[in-house]
Amino acid sequence: MTKLFPDAYFHIGGDEVEGTHWAQSPAIQNFISENKLRNKNGLQAYFNKRVQAMLKKYEKIMIGWEEILDEIDENLIINSDAIIQSWKSRQATVNA
């Protein structure tokens, strides 16, 4: 994907993650348990942190909607060089 988008920035989205199918998947529930993640938001945070590391290898700056910060554990916080696009409220912008 990075070859298709030569810009320095790469938007991963990250909003509107429903999670119903994750909740119904024994494999996903096992992964959440084995990795000591709290819930679907923890799973998304785990994914986001890995994506950010991959993008960094290609010298890309990750952009995502503010939901990528929802209910994340301390060890899953993304690096501060990510750009967060906030749309819910002014307070959400401050928090981001």
Give a written overview of the molecule.
The protein has 96 residues and is an alpha/beta fold. It has one domain (9-95). It has 4 helices and 3 strands. It has helices spanning 20-23, 26-34, 40-57, 90-95; strands at residues 9-11, 61-65, 83-85. It has a 3-stranded parallel sheet, with helices on one face. It is globular and about 40 Å long. The chain starts with 8 loop residues before the first strand and ends with a helix. One of its GO terms (molecular function) is beta-N-acetylhexosaminidase activity. Belongs to the glycosyl hydrolase 20 family. It catalyses: Hydrolysis of terminal non-reducing N-acetyl-D-hexosamine residues in N-acetyl-beta-D-hexosaminides. It is an enzyme of class 3 (hydrolase). The active site is at residue 16.
Number of domains: 1
Q: Tell me the number of strands.
A: 3
Total count of helical runs of at least 4 residues: 4
| Order of helical and strand elements | EHHHEEH
Question: How much helix, percentage-wise, in residues?
Answer: 25-40%
| Ends distance | 26 Å
The strands making up the biggest β-sheet line up spatially as 1-2-3
What shape does the CA trace take? globular
- Mean pLDDT across residues: 84
Strand content: 5-15%
Q: Outline the low-pLDDT stretches.
A: none
